[in-house]
Amino acid sequence: MDKQLLTVFPYYKNPEGIYFPIVPLQLSYQERNIDSSALIDSGATISIFRTDVAEHLGIIVEKGEEIYLGGVGGRIKGYIHKLEVEIAGKKFSCQIVFSHEYLVSFNLLGREEFFKRFRIVFEEKKNYLKLE
To answer: Which segments cross the bilayer (predicted)?
Structure first.
């Protein structure tokens, strides 16, 4: 049986003093890897990353499966790609959408795949996140 790995991540504090649950991770595609980070977003179904991450990994964004995502900010077109993700010592395959229209400063980790791998505890009063 796998040993349970508990990892605690302090929230990231932006220049305006607002805290966000952001975790470091590594993405792998074919023979390339990139260290990155992403906001844990329980309101997002699928993960979405900026296209600069795809470019670093040698991914041609438009070769993925086309998808339209809707949310508070409206609707954007993206492309689904399957990547290997490593977070808190766990490796797993995850569908990630890359979009030229996604212009937000952080990548998002949505519920699909990521939330199945961990027990996630948001400690808002203490500004940290636990992944078990």
So the answer is: none
Cα(47)–Cα(39) distance, integer angstroms = 10
The CATH number of domain 7-131, selected from 2.40.110.10, 2.40.70.10, 3.30.565.10, 2.60.120.200 = 2.40.70.10
In the chain, domain spans: 7-131
Amino acid type, 95: Q
**SS3 for 115?**
helix
Render pLDDT for 36-76 as a digit per residue (tens, 0 to 9).
999 999 999 999 999 999 999 999 999 999 999 987 667 88
Dihedral of the alpha carbons of 42, 97, 57, 100, in degrees to the nearest 10: -110
Q: Is 17 left (phi over 0), alpha (psi -120 to 50) or beta?
A: left
Q: How does residue 17 score in pLDDT terms, banded at 50, 70 and 90?
A: very high
How far apart are the C-alpha atoms of 69 and 82, rounded to whole Å? 17
Would you give the distance in Å from CA 51 to the centre of its chain? Answer: 13
